[in-house]
Design a protein that fits this description.
Blueprint: H1 12-18, E1 46-51, H2 69-73, E2 78-80, E3 86-88, E4 91-96, E5 102-107, H3 121-132, H4 141-145, H5 151-155, E6 165-169, E7 172-176, H6 184-187, H7 198-201, E8 216-222, E9 226-231, E10 244-249, H8 254-259, E11 265-267, H9 270-276, E12 287-291, E13 294-300, H10 310-318, H11 322-328, E14 334-336, H12 359-368, E15 380-385, H13 392-405, E16 409-414, H14 419-424, E17 431-437, H15 444-451, H16 465-476, H17 480-497, E18 500-512, E19 516-517, E20 533-534
Parallel strand pairs: 1-10, 15-16, 15-17
Antiparallel strand pairs: 2-3, 4-5, 5-7, 6-7, 8-9, 9-10, 11-18, 12-18, 13-17, 13-18, 14-18, 19-20
Helix pairs in contact: 10-12, 15-16, 16-17
């Protein structure tokens, strides 16, 4: 969800990172290269970013990825490097049994929490069981830790411990999973698997004083103003070259802040991107382009009429002119999504037919579904994030439905800060805006999470027994070609059922100050502030 807006879970994170408050940054920043007024920060030794107020700093409750402050404060047994390969982190290494069911992790003996207490295998067990405890209320624990034997029993309240976890000694952890899965280690790179300190998280308001194991620790957090991370001098790996990461929360318009030298990195799009792509523009040298492993979509509530009927969902899909939306609203800064899997992800074929714009076919399908006259169709609610009014994307989508289908669509705005919580609570209305970005480069992370019956991320309530059976088969298929073929078949079945309308695959465009060295624009959000440096 997040990643200067990319990662993880929903494209809403991108929206949130662009929400602007009208506070002045003047009291926070003086001239570039100087210290920040009122804070112990030297501009030459810190990375400054524009950000938004965090929903949470609890790894078990976040919907965001490891490129957020959480990924700097906390760490897990493994992580993704800039090439998206799984690498040891708190675990120095591991062994996998011949049957692929037992992972034995050997923890680093020099790993400590920020307060100096050594990390133990019991800390890992506690952290994962805490995430799975139903009282914690994690939406992601079962998704990423559910392969562990006993995990589902604990989250369902049938057990107080996870039977598949065994701390053999202080530095050795045995993990038993329910079936061999090639992506198991990749799942452990998501924040819900990060390690927390039992004594810390049992304190009231502990998120204001988190005791993690990551390369940075929380120095200051003033709501809606500033969040400062300071280098963890006791970090078990190579010390970060920079001393602080500073998030200016709601402090101004990010692009203007970048041009004034107040922040080191900013995402751009639309007319701004077009302007910066001119080689004569002074910002041209700072521009970096890439593609995200992200897909935005419009979800239909498959659980209730009228969208429990696939013909209705198909009609609403044929009624949208995807190419017009991308060229007009996205200003070409996206690729059309005819299916779920984004380009660059293993399993992407580019051969999915999808739903091309065909308003006559859309109307015929509504008639076939029993809605012969425009007035026969009930009022449709469209849930989306926003403050006060809907944006141009939702206006375009609603207008196309009303003009091409003769239906009435009523937008329902939810505070962006609470939008994800509303969707996970089932408050989607008839239709809702959503999206997904890869947490790790595997098609399971898209198709299984979003469309397996009962998955927490299956927000549309989609159910297809054949799809479920194929997803279960693909989980344990060891032959890579056979496995990818299964996912292609699954994707085609999902597209045919139209549980959602796949809209776009996002592209990345960011400006990076030349003195920020070592930053890598990745298609998946990863923790990397400990890998960058500032050089004149």
């Amino acid at each position: 969800m997040d990643r200067i807006g990319r990662r993880t879970i929903l494209l809403l994170a991108i929206f949130l990172s662009g929400v602007l408050a009208c506070r002045s940054a003047d009291r926070l920043i003086t001239n570039p290269g100087k210290a920040l007024v009122g804070s112990d920060i030297n501009r030459d030794e810190a990375v400054l970013l524009a950000g938004s107020q965090p929903r949470t700093l609890d790894p078990a409750l976040t919907h965001g990825g490891p490129d957020s402050p959480i990924g700097a404060i906390f760490s897990g047994l493994v992580g993704l490097d800039p090439t998206l390969q799984v690498q040891p982190d708190l675990a120095a290494g591991w062994e996998v049994s011949e049957d692929g069911l037992v992972y034995t992790f050997y923890l680093r003996r020099d790993a400590t929490f920020h307060d100096g207490r050594p990390l133990t295998a019991e800390d890992v067990v506690f952290s994962w069981e805490r995430a799975l405890n139903p009282e914690t209320g994690s939406d992601t624990a079962l998704t990423y830790l559910g392969d562990i034997v006993g995990a589902a029993d604990m989250q369902a309240g049938r057990s107080k411990r996870v039977s598949g976890l065994n701390a053999i000694d202080d530095t050795t952890l045995e993990v038993r999973i329910d079936s061999p899965k090639v992506y198991f280690l990749s799942k452990l790179t998501f924040p819900v698997a990060f390690i927390v300190d039992k004594n810390n998280v049992e304190q009231p308001d502990w998120e204001r004083l988190p005791n993690g194991t990551g390369p940075f620790q929380l120095q200051e957090w003033s709501d809606d103003e500033i969040l400062i991370l300071a280098r963890n001098e006791g970090y078990y790996r190579e010390l970060p070259a920079i001393k602080q990461v500073v998030y200016l929360i709601g402090s101004g318009i990010p692009l203007f802040m970048y041009e004034k030298g107040e922040i080191d990195l900013v995402g751009i799009s639309g007319s701004t991107l077009e302007r910066v792509q001119d080689p004569n523009n002074p910002l041209y040298a700072d521009l970096r382009l890439g593609s995200d492993m992200c897909t935005s979509y419009i979800g239909f509530n498959n659980r209730e009429a009228p969208f429990d009927d696939p013909r209705v969902r198909q009609a609403f899909s044929y009624a949208l002119d995807r190419d017009k939306i991308i060229s007009g609203i996205y200003q070409g800064n996206a690729l059309p999504a005819l299916g779920l899997l984004p380009p660059g992800l293993p399993g992407y074929s580019g051969e999915i037919a999808g739903y091309e714009f065909d308003p006559q076919k859309a109307r015929d399908l509504l008639v076939e579904a029993g809605y012969e006259q425009p007035g026969d169709f009930p009022l449709v609610t469209y849930t989306t994030a926003g403050y006060g009014s809907i944006d141009s994307l939702e206006i375009a989508i609603i207008t196309m439905w009303q003009e091409n289908l003769g239906v009435t669509v009523e937008p329902v705005l939810v505070d962006p800060y609470n939008y994800l919580d509303a969707l996970y609570a089932g408050n989607t209305g008839d239709i809702f805006s959503s999206g997904w970005c890869a947490d790790y480069p595997d098609p399971e992370n898209f198709l299984d999470l979003l469309f397996y019956t009962g998955s927490a991320q299956n927000l549309s309530g989609y159910h297809n027994g054949q799809v479920d059976a194929l997803l279960e088969e693909a989980r344990t298929e060891s032959d890579i070609n056979r496995r990818l073929a299964l996912y292609r078949e699954i994707e085609e079945l999902v597209v045919s059922d139209a549980p959602v309308f796949f809209l776009a695959h996002s592209l990345s465009a960011i400006l990076v100050k030349p003195e920020l060295q070592g930053y890598v624009l990745t298609p998946i959000g990863i923790a990397q502030w400990h890998l960058v440096s500032k050089e004149k």
